[in-house]
From TrEMBL:
<dbReference type="GO" id="GO:0005840">
    <property type="term" value="C:ribosome"/>
</dbReference>
<dbReference type="InterPro" id="IPR026569">
    <property type="entry name" value="Ribosomal_bL28"/>
</dbReference>
<keyword id="KW-0687">Ribonucleoprotein</keyword>
<protein>
    <recommendedName>
        <fullName>Large ribosomal subunit protein bL28</fullName>
    </recommendedName>
</protein>
<feature type="region of interest" description="Disordered">
    <location>
        <begin position="1"/>
        <end position="29"/>
    </location>
</feature>
<comment type="similarity">
    <text>Belongs to the bacterial ribosomal protein bL28 family.</text>
</comment>
<dbReference type="InterPro" id="IPR001383">
    <property type="entry name" value="Ribosomal_bL28_bact-type"/>
</dbReference>
<keyword id="KW-0689">Ribosomal protein</keyword>
<dbReference type="Pfam" id="PF00830">
    <property type="entry name" value="Ribosomal_L28"/>
</dbReference>
<dbReference type="InterPro" id="IPR034704">
    <property type="entry name" value="Ribosomal_bL28/bL31-like_sf"/>
</dbReference>
<dbReference type="InterPro" id="IPR037147">
    <property type="entry name" value="Ribosomal_bL28_sf"/>
</dbReference>
Length: 78
């Protein structure tokens, strides 16, 4: 599963860890990604989305129908 949110588009951030001796190593900040299943009443089926926790809050606020319409308008496949 990729660390990419289908609702908000959040992706991992990349950077360096800096130790006490100032040695730098690569690191990655992953978003909190969850697989969630939602019911679409208009299509009478369930869909599984890969969403961040902020994406879950967006779905709770706007509704699953509006969010799915936004994702489809962007051209992403669900």
């Amino acid at each position: 599963m990729s660390a990419h949110c289908q609702v908000t588009g959040r992706k991992p951030g990349f950077g360096k860890s800096v130790s006490h001796s100032h040695k730098r190593t690569n690191r990655r900040w992953n978003p909190n990604i969850q697989r969630k299943t939602y019911y679409l009443p208009s299509e009478d089926r369930r869909i599984t989305l890969t969403v961040s926790t902020k994406g879950i809050k967006t779905i709770d606020r706007d509704g699953i129908e509006a969010v799915v319409a936004r994702i489809r308008a962007r051209g992403d496949k669900i």
